[in-house]
Predict the 3D structure of the following.
Amino acid sequence: MKIVQDGRAPNPRRVRIFLAEKSIEIAFETIDIMTEEHKTPERIQQNPMARVPYLVLDDGTVIAETMAICRYFEAVQPAPSLFGRTARDQGVIEMWQRRVEQGLLAPVAHAFRHRHPRMAHLEVPQVAEWGEANVPKVEAMLDLLNGELQGRAYIAGEQFSVADITALCTIDFMKVARFSLAERHGNLKRWHGAVSARPSARA
């Protein structure tokens, strides 16, 4: 069993943090997406979507997509739960995980991939206007999260969850996409400091 990744990208880091929180050790195979190693015939046969990370099980089964990989390991080792134990918690965590992934990670990724010259060969066509169009989406979501964190410790409540992992990796990734937290984001800064101090954040 192994996970194929590019160690610099935010999605593989989400999986690494998830596994670290559960104290699960697994082999990683690191490739370089900037040289398009993820698009070789062998890799395309394993994962036709040509993305990382993806998990290769011992029987050859390939599980791609970050949350699908995390779901697999949550089922293998339920504790500590990062998707919630009760039906209520699972619903709330899933809601916030989706909101952060779609409302923050995706716009940050679009802004980065469509504005950075080095990404032009990976984002075809690269549309600078689309990159710029995502900037206000990022700012709006940061403001929303900052407001939500006024009264709770973590993104989805009082329990550290997969939603926090997605948010942490996204906010750290914002630096390369030329975003940063503003002075008005005091709650987000408090939260970021707390989750960054967890040992898993170094994964």
